[in-house]
Amino acid sequence: MLADANHGHPRKFVSRLPKMPCMTHEPPNFSGNDPVRDEARALEASIRAIRRAQGKRNPEDFPPGSPECLAIMEEFVRDVGRVLALDISNREGDDDSHLDGAGATG
Known about the structure:
Layout: E1 2-3, E2 10-11, H1 35-53, H2 67-92
Antiparallel strand pairs: 1-2
């Protein structure tokens, strides 16, 4: 606490920064039916289940903001990146992934 020079009463420091949601806390509340968000949530749930099956821990297994939680969050993000890289490499070799539809010849 900071002392008020005029009155000798302590003052509390109040942050004016917005509170940011953390992966281990309440997720932001998005309204509507967004298929990309639904796919991202399914990917997240799949990776959590796979990590659990492999005996790995997830961020919610640790106190929020702890060094362990932050380390596991980094591992989790790397796992997401690996899955996305695999998905992209699989799609590049698949004729059905062409932006105009089934294969370049249609």
